[in-house]
Automatic annotation (TrEMBL), chains A, B:
GO terms for biological process: cholesterol biosynthetic process; isopentenyl diphosphate biosynthetic process, mevalonate pathway. GO terms for cellular component: cytosol. NCBIfam families: mevDPdecarb (TIGR01240). Transmembrane segments: none annotated. Residues 183-368 form the Mvd1 C-terminal domain. Belongs to the diphosphomevalonate decarboxylase family. One of its GO terms (molecular function) is diphosphomevalonate decarboxylase activity. Its EC number is 4.1.1.33. Residues 8-169 form the Diphosphomevalonate decarboxylase-like N-terminal domain. Catalyzes the ATP dependent decarboxylation of (R)-5-diphosphomevalonate to form isopentenyl diphosphate (IPP). Functions in the mevalonate (MVA) pathway leading to isopentenyl diphosphate (IPP), a key precursor for the biosynthesis of isoprenoids and sterol synthesis. This is Diphosphomevalonate decarboxylase. Pfam families: MDD_C, MVD-like_N. SUPFAM superfamilies: GHMP Kinase, C-terminal domain, Ribosomal protein S5 domain 2-like.
Amino acid sequence: MKTVTFTAPVNIAVVKYWGKRDDKLILPLNSSLSATLDQDVMCAKTTVACSKEFKESSLWLNGKREDINSTRIQNVIKTIKKLALEKNPSNEIISWNVEIRSCNNFPTAAGLASSAAGFACLVSALANLYEIEGDLSEIARQGSGSACRSVLGGWVAWDKGTNSKDSIARQIADENHWPDMRVLIIVVNAGHKSTTSTGGMARSVETSRLLELRAKEIVPDMMRKMEKAILQKNFDEFAELTMRDSNQLHAICLDTYPPISYMNDTSRFIQYVVHSINDFHQTNKVAYTFDAGPNACLYLLEENAQLVTSLLCKSFQIGAEVFRGNEIPKLNENIDSLLMEKINNYWRKFDANDIQHCIYTKVGKGPSPTEDHIKSIK
Amino acid sequence: MKTVTFTAPVNIAVVKYWGKRDDKLILPLNSSLSATLDQDVMCAKTTVACSKEFKESSLWLNGKREDINSTRIQNVIKTIKKLALEKNPSNEIISWNVEIRSCNNFPTAAGLASSAAGFACLVSALANLYEIEGDLSEIARQGSGSACRSVLGGWVAWDKGTNSKDSIARQIADENHWPDMRVLIIVVNAGHKSTTSTGGMARSVETSRLLELRAKEIVPDMMRKMEKAILQKNFDEFAELTMRDSNQLHAICLDTYPPISYMNDTSRFIQYVVHSINDFHQTNKVAYTFDAGPNACLYLLEENAQLVTSLLCKSFQIGAEVFRGNEIPKLNENIDSLLMEKINNYWRKFDANDIQHCIYTKVGKGPSPTEDHIKSIK
């Protein structure tokens, strides 16, 4: 029996992936870009064991047995076993059955893309098990598109490429490049399952003319600008690009037929709060981005974290108890009254019931073996 | 002293006008298409008087004095007076001061585009006063873009044209062409002023790349298809095109920076109810369209009016008392339980507080002199 355990991170895109040009290989319509988040706060953890004694292969997610024969899981396992056989045809463990146990240290029900972390973790663990080296993003991509970006740390581009071999992840800058960047995820109480991103994307590709135009005419330029803003650590520019790209994703969803609405009134209120802060300060202090659900993900610099979290808490009438994460900023009661008045003027009131919790985190590194795992190797 | 009184209709676009290519002349980025609504239910009524005795010109809207020197009002008055002088330079009444009194028989606060009816009415009354004939849509357009389409009855296209002379209204079919077409306007309780359509459009033109692509690549084909669907009275096709075009307008608003959200959770629930009805019946029974606010405007055939209104009433827990208009359908308690279950499964509940009232109406004719006015001529 051989066992390996890895953890892998979540990533939050600032240039969104939406739409496949090849459903089987999961080749995207456009390039995308994300930050990989700190695994101390959010990660998937996967243990893969293989043994001659296992009568069958099995998959367990968060303690519950799932179908290991699902197409995407099999895509990943088969591709890795094939590479392993090419490298070492006499490696007998490749023929053994596997037991995969994966869990997340954050609620999957929260609508936070857990499949990216999960597939990046599975691929990393399997590659380690079978001693495969080199790029893993091509394989992770075939499990879940955005998992492609979770195999690296820091700021990661997924270049659309021309085929499967070059539609892979590329690190733009590592996790230490922009050390004061922080990420605040606001998990919104929605009480409903959204359209899945896979289902939504397929419908957009089929019905939205604007998606085609976005992928062709808009994203290439957006990628160049975003990469530059990140490399130059230009927050003002980075924030505007991030918000514009998120809005465009949701515009495409609305242009889809029948339309898809991932954001709700609470999401839009958070948008309003963010624009109010930025307008008030005449420069971008914080940026929102929304994925396939109503949760907001805010990018902000540490120096503005107290301002932003304090204002959000006051806006939703919540306290520090809703925050999870490390080095959570202290709440400050001294909020400018003009800014607070602008927010109070919003057409609807929101309160603690509209928010589930907030996660405060930062940019982090890519998948890694756990300490237990490292110990067991030594 | 000479006095004329006209009434003019509201119109609801099914291919939306969004964005000007010339702000002064109000030339649109794209062609648009609407139905003119029955004046029995909703209209603007304008009396224009001119007299040698009037010391100054004045404007009264719904009984309140307003600035007659606003650019758009002056654009209209000056253009008409110029035409009148060209026709009959010795017509002394042209030099007299005017008193304009206009009112709507529906609440302006309801967020229903009243400026289209108002300017179509003003232009019609002034043209009659000064005995001008021929196309009036070019002049109305310079008061308010969508007023261009309110100068004609039935189904009206506003061709974008190449200059001011040919950016005018064209009747596709008159008000008798599709006699069983009905319109149900659901006035949603929003409690907030939206971004004005003028302000919103300007921001979209400046910041949304998708708007440029919509105007150039998508609307020309949409206009052809919509015109054909109307001429063929193909409701299924008409409904899909109408909903797609409305969704695209709001997609553009979201792609605008900062983003504009006219629809709220109530609007999206109405969208959901409409798609639920259509899915359930495997054909389009009703279409929604939304303008620069959260109110829904539904197009439907009379034979389906009972089904749709009954379901809406049950969904919002409202009764027949919220309806205004003529020949309001009787509510029917026998709603298919599967359909009702689907609607009850929506993630949020809505009730009577979310709705202000509903207006049931149909397609109608263009501006006309009032009976009082006709009597006074006889």
